[in-house]
Amino acid sequence: MGPELGLPIPGEDTGTKSERLEACLKALPDDNLLPAAQRLLHSPQVSVRGKERFALEDAVWEAGAVIEIPGRVRRELADAIDLDELLYRPDRFERALERFWLLDDDPVALWTGSSSTSLRARIRRHVFRNRGDWSVEELFEQLGVFDAGSARFTRFLEALVDPATLPDAAAQGRLVEAINAVLAPAAIRLEQTGERDGYPHFQLLRTGPGAVRRPKTLIFATTAKPDIRFLSVVDNDLEVLQGMDQVLVYDRTVGPDGLRWCDLQQWWQDKTGTDDTEQAKKDLYNRLLASMPSEDVSPQRDLYRLYHRIYGARAWTLPALLPEVWLHWDHKTVQQRGVEALLNHRMDFLMLLPGGHRAVLEVDGRHHYASAKAYEDTVRGDRDLKLRGYEVYRFSSTELSNRHRAGPLLEQFFTGLFTHHSLTIPQAEPHHTAPST
Q1: Domains of the chain by residue range
Q2: pTM above 0.90, yes or no
Q3: At what angle do helices 150-160 and 50-62 cross, to 10 degrees?
Q4: Boundaries of each AbiJ-NTD3 domain copy (predicted)?
């Protein structure tokens, strides 16, 4: 079990299985505790259930980005939610409840296999069979919703409007509208981020300055300024007139999992009409590489190569590292626009992470700090990005120029970034090869 979870292997004479596991955990460095916990939750070899699983989930979820929802707002939500909407499919609603709350809390059930006093039995009696006995507020009280951590509560709220729980688009819409009316003053909302089985899929997002929003136009890997025109201004229907050798335009919905290499490669295969996955992987990798500066010493290319070298086949389900992504576009030049000109048109790299989060990676050469004006432009651009909801991480070209040092540095950075966003780094799968050549 230790190797599968990335735990150190104890000595043969450590003792019982429980004692060996405890020895593994004690020998694990603090920085590796969270990744090990993530692997434990997803491990097919180890089953963690009940209170222990919920406690482990809370520890992992709270370590990531969390939207805080105060107790008063939770109670207002309970008052706004129509219980009859949730009970469209009682069996699915019960599965959603048991995913987040301990329903079988009666020790007698361990011996008899059933209980008339467990929370599950009381919910079936007072919510399912005798509707009207409990309000949503009473149900939430019994579940412990009001006292739960924000990470658990937000996931539970998303689950209530998920098509797996509520397979009715009209009912989803009514419930989302009621929830958003309560969340609006707290600058939070449920927003549709994709579809599942033909039904809307919603995710809880912040609104206002710094809020994350669903990407609508993703233009990247550019070797020249895009030649853009509007086919329909009313519908925001853009057309990029260059071919794929100059500009790439990802025109699919970015879902709650972010934009992963596997998503990007599937899009590429559909665009190029190829069924050869290995060749498509190499072609896409090289196409993205070709969009970056081609100097003999290119720290930006080094960062891209090292990312794929570090993760290899595991990059398949990790966020895609998108180079040369356009942030602003203006048909006029800086000289023509003057003081109103938009600066920092392109991002060196963009990663679209789970939960609608966006991470910008910039590689700074000496020209970024060559003058007071250049430095002003750099920090002003950072402020603008952060106010738009981007996380900005800068690397100096000098720290990436030493490849022996750059590899461990980048591995530590990406591990920290993925851990912060509760993203598990998968084990390599034999049928996936590294996208690099």
Answers
A1: 3-47, 71-206, 218-420
A2: no
A3: 100
A4: 68-234
